[in-house]
Amino acid sequence: MKGVPEIFGSMVFNDAVMREKLPKDTYKSLKSTIENGTELDPGVANVVANAMMDWAIEKGATHYTHWFQPMTGITAEKHDSFISPQSGGRVIMEFSGKELIKGEPDASSFPSGGLRATFEARGYTAWDPTSYAFVKDNTLYIPTAFCSYSGEVLDKKTPLLRSMEVISKEAVRMLRLLGDTQTTRVTSTVGPEQEYFLIDKALFRRRKDLMFTGRTLFGARPPKGQELEDHYFGAIKPRVMEFMQDLDNQLWELGILAKTKHNEVAPAQHELAPIFSTTNVATDHNQLTMELMRRVADKHGLACLLHEKPFAGVNGSGKHNNWSLATNTGRNLFEPGKNPHENKIFLVFLCAVIKAVDEHQDLLRVSVASAGNDHRLGANEAPPAIVSIFLGDELCGILDSIEAGQPYEKRSACTMRTGVQVLPDFIKDTTDRNRTSPFAFTGNKFEFRMLGSSFSIAGPNIILNTIVADALSQFSDRLEKASDFDSELCALMRDCVAQHRRIIFNGNNYAPEWVEEAERRGLLNLKSTVDALPHFKSEKNIKLFSKHRIFTETEINSRYEILMENYCKVLNIEALTMIDMAKKEIIPSVFAYSRELSETVAAKKSIGVDITDDAAAELVTNLTKLANCLSKRISSVEDALVAANGIDDLLGRARYFRENVLLCMNEARAAADELETMVSGKYWPFPTYSELMFCI
Ligand code: ADP
Ligand code: MG
């Protein structure tokens, strides 16, 4: 058997392969594109395409595909074979630079939010050489960006790449001001921790709600939930372990740095975390990871649930987006470090994050808004919908002294000083205690914890990169004009802390008092997707995105529409599924059971048994009442749905879904869940929570 180092990246056209397969000049030119963002020479593309194809054929590939990330949140691909006809009915394998660089999938069925009229269906994909090509399913996968004929962006990768350019530019500009003459490029790095549930595939198939919506729309609480906390980090069951090993191997082949795996808090819940990489690559890898999780699970007779809230009453699944900035000289800009020069840098970048998060709470909230994540944010398990930063006592102490213009005195033996003076290393543990914060400093990076498990991490990272770049840019504007740099720097940090400290909160974010406190501080509390999304289009945000050329106003509007439409569509599907399950499965099963009970009662009666207070008779009465109630409530869902879909105005429709349809659905569910506790297991039409969560 091959060892992990041999397996790792074996299906990837990575740097080592390029160095080996490409002529020196070609390699150098491509490398410069990858590392410095210089434009690719078309002559180079032909040579690269040829080498790529030869290598891919060796790995069993017969096809290639431009792999892209449309606004559906998942990836898309269309496969073309390498064959090219020759005389005599033969074929040869061919792949040109043009085919490598540009593709033209029919784009008419991808969401564009009104950007592209259906008569103008053309969309283009363009090779992204900063993310390695790879072979999967006998196909060469070429990571690409996706845009419309008129150049409007239709995907998640293009704005992400733009935001990476912007943060690099602004970070380098700031580093120059702070005396760094070496750094020429700064990359944002991300390590996304991925949570998921695994359940038995046969059980999954018997539940329409899981199949169509990814979450259970019905289900009474099982006798045991997560209260014993015996699943978190518990021993992994053999069947799950086999899945995890298979998954790791497949991820490693694709060069994905799968590192940590463990059981999570809820029964049947698990987590996988890779070692961090650049934001762009981390995004591609996370998409692949989610896809492979589903596929490998299927192979092992399991179903992988990536929905944010598959089960009521136990924790939902999130994705922790660990984010930092690294220079091309190998420095993590959020590493507090020992060197005073570095610490100055650390403090300025820290201030930029504080300013960015405070000024753009709305955008961070927008970036994690979805129907699925609404079940999580705000429930007592995930960060609340209020954005705040956790820094820990030590950093807060430093910020206090910056604001007061006084040296920072550490309580322990070693003394820390602020600003231009020495700061010793922080003990990491002291900054990594708070698990309730939506945005926590964790020693040398920030952990943004509001993402839903099924999210592409592109969106949140576009926002993070852009807002921090904007804060840095404002800082630089001010510092570049300063006559006395050091005192202006101190003043800038002092002002920043004074203005934005309201965003810092080290306490328990789940406590109800925090909601009141946050309101006093004037922080936003955008409880649902419908409340959050309109902020995307605010004047402030259009200005921000235009300034940094991330999105045009038209692109923002189109994205807003796609997201809001998606919200309505998800709720529509959920409501329809609920109606279907109630009418075709639950109510008939209640009737069948009632009939059996009635027959029992009749039989008893016929042989003269006294049926006053008879349990079966009483049960029939209660079942009938509840079934009528469920039936009425399902009618209400139907009525609400008709009303919702009759509303033309998108925001109005979304609001109606949120305020009426969802409410009716919750009421219908309550009746059905009570019925579940009364109906014999033999009659209940689909697997219960106990079976789903405890049967692996
Ligand atoms: P925890 O469960 O305590 O949050 P994990 O070890 O599961 O921590 O995850 C931490 C994640 O942070 C990993 O994916 C890791 O690679 C990532 N990470 C570490 N350093 C950085 C960094 N400089 N930039 C981005 N991500 C980082
Ligand atoms: Mg974490």
User: What ligands are attached or bound here?
Assistant: adenosine-5'-diphosphate, magnesium ion
CATH homologous superfamily descriptor of the largest domain: Glutamine synthetase/guanido kinase, catalytic domain
Distance between the termini: 29 Å
Tell me which CATH architecture of the largest domain applies here.
Answer: 2-Layer Sandwich
Largest sheet: 9 strands, mixed
* CATH level 1 name of the largest domain: Alpha Beta
Number of domains: 3
Overview of the structural elements:
The protein has 696 residues and is of the alpha+beta class. It has 3 domains: 151 residues, Roll (Ubiquitin-like (UB roll)); 379 residues, Creatine Kinase, Chain A, domain 2, CATH 3.30.590; 128 residues, Up-down Bundle (Four Helix Bundle (Hemerythrin (Met), subunit A)), CATH 1.20.120.1560. Helices cover 49% and strands 13% of the residues. It is built from 23 helices and 17 strands. The longest helix is centred in the C-terminal third of the chain and has 54 residues. It is globular and about 100 Å long. Bound molecules: adenosine-5'-diphosphate and magnesium ion.
